[in-house]
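fold-stage: in
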Amino acid sequence: MPLIAGGIVLILLFLRGPLEWIPGMSLLFYGLALHAASRDTYPEIRLLGWIQAVLGILALWYPHYAIAFWATGFGLFHIGYGAYFMIRYER
């Protein structure tokens, strides 16, 4: 549900709202969706959700650095979590 609601909000922001909110809102709603999904998946996903949500709030608070926060959340932390999951669960 948070991912669908976030997608709708992001489309509305793209069409009518301030564009500088899009990176922060995408991180925030994705973090909420990860947190909600952590009940049905691995418990470590909850921490990734919190990290994404905090980065989203920071991106909204500091809009000049929003793309850096976005790249950190969707790039660096996903790579780190992917490596962690590979080491922990694939061996």
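fold-stage: in (second)
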Amino acid sequence: MNKTYKYILVLLVSIIVAYYNSGKEEAELSGLMPVSRVVDGDTFWAEDGSEKGVKIRLIGVDAPETRNGNNKKIGFYGQEAKAYLTDLLSNQEVRLEYGVDSLDRYGRVLAYVYLSDGTFVNEELIKKGYARVLSIPPNVKYADAFVFYERDARESNRGLWQKESE
């Protein structure tokens, strides 16, 4: 097969895969769910129709700890991260985009989270310096973008990247 035909074949396969994945992504989105409570800067509860609700852990981000426990210490900017997420999610409904792995080892739902106005919560936390990137395969869909936003936040001394003396 000559190079032109190989190029066309690769292009067609790419288009088919992109078309298949675009429909798949839409199917992975949940309906809107009201947020009931924020646990910390990267975890919250939402009402899913069950008695208890669902505990959601944001994919791709790691906010500083807000309390000591499980071999973890309170982190610099942890309370601020929790306060920001609380303000962002207060009286909001969210839509979840599920990762490849849908649960973590603690039974929390892993998700990329969007407000009803389209705001991408995971991204906002990193952009504003309330969280750092935490990419755990296979849930790495937005990892490259998150790394870019973290670098920008760090270089701009936003949030947890600010100098502690300031």
